[in-house]
């Protein structure tokens, strides 16, 4: 009788990393994704080959899905960001999402519970462009209303 093959596991999240070393490795990569494996190993107190193996496993498990560059504060401070709550008519969501996805200034779009159907994060080069974007969004068929909050200062940023 052959051994049973275990079913495939869903991708793990960073919170589901296997142990403390995995969590510390993820935190170091979030701080600097370009850190060398030798430096990561030194900071974690493990062998470089251990770091390489853990990175490969975390990537294979879907915990790490990419590495990114983060803009410095000068580049990030240019322009204006706004969170926009969007309420849509019933059954209009798919088309609204399709139209919103075509906006290059759209950074994130999430369906949410509560007062709005969607929450968008926009980045525009000026308040004039943000105003025009809000008009464009309001004119999309199916959009009932938008409520905007302009970002004044970013207090904590843990995004990649």
TrEMBL record:
Segments forming domain HTH asnC-type: 19-87
SUPFAM superfamilies attached to this UniProt entry: Dimeric alpha+beta barrel, Winged helix' DNA-binding domain
Source species of the chain: Kinneretia aquatilis
Keywords, comma-separated and alphabetical: DNA-binding, Transcription, Transcription regulation
Name this polypeptide is given: AsnC family transcriptional regulator
InterPro entries in alphabetical order: AsnC-type_HTH_dom, Dimeric_a/b-barrel, Tscrpt_reg_AsnC-like, Tscrpt_reg_AsnC/Lrp_C, WH-like_DNA-bd_sf, WH_DNA-bd_sf
GO MF annotation, one: sequence-specific DNA binding
Matches recorded under Pfam families: AsnC_trans_reg, HTH_AsnC-type
GO cellular component: cytosol
Superkingdom in the source lineage: Bacteria
GO terms, biological process: response to amino acid
């Amino acid at each position: 009788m052959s051994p049973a093959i275990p079913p495939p596991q869903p991708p793990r999240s960073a919170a589901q990393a296997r142990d403390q070393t995995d969590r510390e490795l993820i935190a170091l990569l979030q701080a600097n994704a370009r850190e060398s494996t030798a430096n990561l190993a030194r900071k974690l107190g493990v062998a470089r080959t251990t770091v390489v193996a853990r990175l490969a496993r975390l990537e294979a498990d879907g915990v790490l899905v990419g590495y990114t560059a983060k803009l410095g504060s000068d580049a990030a401070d240019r322009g204006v960001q706004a969170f926009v709550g969007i309420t849509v008519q019933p059954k209009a969501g798919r088309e609204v999402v399709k139209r919103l996805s075509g906006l290059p200034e759209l950074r994130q779009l999430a369906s949410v519970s509560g007062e709005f159907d969607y929450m968008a994060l926009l980045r525009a080069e000026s308040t004039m462009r943000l105003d025009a974007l809000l008009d464009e969004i309001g004119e999309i068929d199916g959009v009932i209303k938008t409520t905007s909050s302009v970002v004044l200062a970013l207090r904590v940023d843990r995004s990649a």
